Amino acid sequence: MNNPDMKTIKTILEEAKTIAVVGLSDKPSRTSYQVAEVLVNAGYRVIPVNPRVEEVFGVQAVGSLNDIEEKVDIVNVFRRSELLKEMVPDVLASEAPVFWAQMGVYDEDVADQLNEAGKTVIMDRCIKVDYASLLNV
Fold it and tell me: What positions does the domain CoA-binding occupy (predicted)?
């Protein structure tokens, strides 16, 4: 799987305003919460996508990507690799140009499908780490 180069990733992070975080937990001990908290503190609007939580960081959670009514720049995913393929229809139906799967999460077939549909795909990378190394200077 080929992720975009670091210059492209930096541009994505510079231009993004709204990030839908799929699998965002409302528990501060969870990695998804900690990563999203950094994004919120960096000024991004974070939309929690998790049918099992009410809200995170004061933002009402939605059950799926299809429930988001505003423009999303990045879909950031905290789900197991084998569950990524279930997300393809919703990601393709969304206008979000970037699909970002967190560290340890990847599926070559999903990446191929999304790339073919014109989406930028980043997998097996932590958005918090990339933000810190590329923008938080």
Answer: 13-105
pLDDT the model gives residue 137: 54
18 neighbors 71 (Cβ within 8 angstroms): yes
Q: What is the CATH number of the domain that holds 12?
A: 3.40.50.720
- Give the count of domains, the chain: 1
Q: Please determine, for residue 132, whether its predicted confidence score (pLDDT) is greater than 70.
A: yes
pLDDT reading at 136 higher than 80: no
The answer to whether 94 touches 73, Cβ cutoff 8 Å, is no
In a domain, 1, yes or no: no
Structural domain for 35, as ranges: 6-134
Q: Is residue 15 part of a domain?
A: yes
Residue among 137, 128, 73, 82 at smallest CA distance from 102: 128
- Across 82-113, b (16+ Cβ under 10 Å) vs e yields eebeebbebbbebebbbbbbbeebbbeebbeb
Would the pTM count as exceeding 0.85?
yes
